[in-house]
Amino acid sequence: MKLNFYLRLCTHFLVAVIFAFVAASLFHSQFVMAELSKVGVEILFKDRLSMSIDDLLGLYPTYGIVIAVSYFISFILAGLLIKRFKLSPYILYCLAGGFSVTVALLAMHPILEITLLAGARSTFGFVCQSIAGAMGGALFATFRREQHVIIQ
Questions:
Q1: Cα separation, 92 vs 96, whole angstroms
Q2: Buried (b) or exposed (e) across 17-53, using 16+ Cβ within 10 A?
Q3: Are the C-beta atoms of residues 139 and 16 closer than 8 Å to each other?
Q4: Interval 65-82: pLDDT, tens
Q5: For 18, how many CA atoms within 13 A lie in the half-sphere containing its CB?
Q6: What is the rounded average pLDDT of the residues 31-39?
Q7: Which of 55, 69, 120, 148 has the most CB atoms at less than 10 Å from its CB?
Q8: What pTM did the predictor assign?
């Protein structure tokens, strides 16, 4: 029973991380291409698709891991708060996901002296990265709620 619980928990976590990473990577790609378009670069649909796939593959070893580590920490804290104060898992995991990506991006800036993601250099791009994190947190909460209903 415990093994099954942990396998499902890990699966839910990994799906949420992958979802958040894909959304964040696609946001990043589109923001970079929008900036290129502003300076007169014509980008065809096939080029958008190709660049988006390249970004997914190129960012995964770094940004994917950053999202996974930040989610791990924030979801543990959110889980503790949910149990301790009987708060809404959906709201808390959603906030934890968004907050974790925000903190990760802010933490990388002083370390690297540059915003790692060009797509997060504008305020709206930065907010979209946080929204991608929140969407992954919401997905995790949805999976966990369904798991809770199944157990009862």
A1: 6
A2: bbbbbbbbbbbbbbbbbeeeeeeeeeeeeeeeeebbe
A3: yes
A4: 999 999 999 999 999 999
A5: 7
A6: 93
A7: 120
A8: 0.91
The pLDDT value recorded for residue 147 is 59
pLDDT in tens, 117-136: 888 888 999 999 999 999 99
For residues 146 and 152, the answer to whether their CB atoms sit within 8 Å is no
- Give the Cα separation of 127 and 46 in Å (integer): 27
Domains of the chain by residue range: 2-151
Does the pLDDT value for residue 150 go beyond 60? no
Q: How far is Cα 22 from Cα 55, in angstroms, rounded to an integer? A: 10
Q: Determine the distance from the C-alpha atom of residue 62 to the mean position of all C-alpha atoms in its chain, rounded to a whole number.
A: 13
- Contact in structure between 143 and 12 (CB atoms under 8 Å): yes
Token representation of residue 60 = 């995964």
Q: According to the model, what pLDDT value does residue 152 have?
A: 39
Residue 97 and residue 20 in contact, taking contact as beta carbons nearer than 8 Å = yes
